[in-house]
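Cross-posted from the bioinformatics board.
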Amino acid sequence: MAVFTYRIAMLPIRCSSSNSTNSHSHDPNQQNLHKIKINGSASAMMPLKVDLPSSLTITSVAPVVENLSLTKEQTRQNIPTKKQYIDPHRQGLIVEEGVGYRQTVVIRSYEVGPDKTATLEIILCLLQETALNHVWLSGLLSNGFGATHGMVRNNLIWVVSKLQVQVDQYPIWGEVVEIDTWVGASGKNGMRRDWLVRSQATGQVFARATSTWVMMNEKTRRLSKMPEEVRAEIAPWFIEKQAIKEEVPEKIAKLDDKARYVVTNLKPKRSDLDMNQHVNNVKYVRWMLETLPDQFFENHQLSGITLEYKRECGSSDIVESLCEPDEEEGIINTGLKQNNDKSLFNGFSLPSEIMEGNGFLSSLEKTPLKYTHLLVAKGKTQSEEIVRGKTIWKKKLLTTMPFSP
Amino acid sequence: MAVFTYRIAMLPIRCSSSNSTNSHSHDPNQQNLHKIKINGSASAMMPLKVDLPSSLTITSVAPVVENLSLTKEQTRQNIPTKKQYIDPHRQGLIVEEGVGYRQTVVIRSYEVGPDKTATLEIILCLLQETALNHVWLSGLLSNGFGATHGMVRNNLIWVVSKLQVQVDQYPIWGEVVEIDTWVGASGKNGMRRDWLVRSQATGQVFARATSTWVMMNEKTRRLSKMPEEVRAEIAPWFIEKQAIKEEVPEKIAKLDDKARYVVTNLKPKRSDLDMNQHVNNVKYVRWMLETLPDQFFENHQLSGITLEYKRECGSSDIVESLCEPDEEEGIINTGLKQNNDKSLFNGFSLPSEIMEGNGFLSSLEKTPLKYTHLLVAKGKTQSEEIVRGKTIWKKKLLTTMPFSP
């Protein structure tokens, strides 16, 4: 393990004194960004120690793209063609002996809910973002949604088959968060991607996540083995570490129309589609959670979610969201005897105060409540599963509501 | 005008070699972030020239918060209590003779639509975010949604009365964007806030925006004069510059139920509420735009939007979204004679190819199409206006679709 002191380009922040823009001029050359223009890539350098494996040769940090025969769009995107170690714009860098990725993000004002804590949706978005930025910095990213050059040559795209997220605590507005992500092997033809979300200030772990990915032929829509060409690209990035301890995976039951909560006729909107023209992952979760009554969210916080993906959801699908509480699971977890009152473990039908016995009450309040979910695409003749889900909840405590009135 | 070379704390990036986390340990102290730990606030410093007015005294940059009697949440948020000049986490800094704010952001993977360009919604989100970060860095931010300490002492909150955004070009996935924002006086008791969104690489202006704000008493819900205490806080930040040339403001007509497009029974969801427990601005725009047929969006790009806010929208409101094309406006703008075919200027009812005359066709294709919008809260006895809107559109050209198949 070698440790270098390496000079990197600073944030390309420009400081100008005044009149930096003119409301009439659309020509950037006519903008008066002239006085004290500090473009860090030229002058503002600083020493930063980067931890690199001794076997690796550092490629140049800037310019990140070889400026030959690039389209205008490629220039605007500036996707690196070689491995980079630091991305000052995304506040990302390569860690973990040169194969992991770490990015610092600030929870933005529009990424939090009414209680000023980040939503699960935004955590999922940030997982996607850091995964793509990891590939971005690796120099392997082709012009697609995380596909490598070798994958594009083989008409392959990534397909997620499973995602599991555990949230211990939600970050709050303005909080600085560090997200680590890395990849590993999953069987012979799959890839595992894990994440760890931490407080930048204290190192406290907010969330852990793991996912498994396989490759699909973009044209035949069939799953594919991992070609050797692609394995050669990504296998050097594989590490063993796991964010979530591997347990015997809990099977997610398939719900049917008899589920307690059913919302029908969900139609993807334009704004729900991602770059792959598919309904985004985050929308799946929103559809799943919106089956639960609002009141439930006031008293409960999502502490875990597992998603098993079955099929793509396109813009023309009509979706049904089913949800069923796993009452017995909650009871078994606390070692309490079974109770047949269905509403009891639902968490919102009865206020906890009316339950007898302090021990019972306090045990119950700590009980993670579980729900099983299913999204199906309703066809004329049959329905097709899109994604099965399991959510785990905990009672909100006052201390988890930092901005309560 | 003085120019300082000033040492600031670098991005607090930590580099560790391996095993930086253990899936079983939730104690941050037990994480093995031990090997090469570079916390910039201590060791990684770099010189950066910051342009400051000579009359200003620099307050310390780090630590940004005086660490006395802070709640846990205040420590996590770390809102500055004194004016700061640089925010390395948000990639923001004070410009414009010490009163403007500039932030560098990268367009994220989940902030773009299927065509890989940023959505209008995300541009509006970034305007909100940079405005709040401007107040954040100013040292004036109290524990609220942009309210200063003086405002909180007077039970005042900000209320936006008008927002106008012009988008020349939408940034694309991965593009680095610089957003400038600054404030000015608006009449005796109001404030104007402007923004300029530029390509970081070329300086090309992507978007301009302006808004006007007044103060409301949080308890009485009545508009308020600006107290001298508050004026003393914010007036030193006022500058004259305007992002959008002030024209005689176009009056936005009030639509009624006879509007061409009407979507009824819109209900705010939990995820639509912001920190003020109100439906977020972005949701307003989505409700407005969703009245237009999907096909329209395939061929048209929003180039401008003006919003006139009339009343808050809360979680219990049932909303109706009305929309009417301004056909005649389109004709007048191009100097063409009026045409009574209502469908012609609608932009999606007829393909442009069937229109006669090359000159006419090319003029029409460049014609900004305009729509008038209205959101109303439907009450039992009467409806109340929430926001009036005007949108301006242009035909999509191939060059504006960088990722078309």
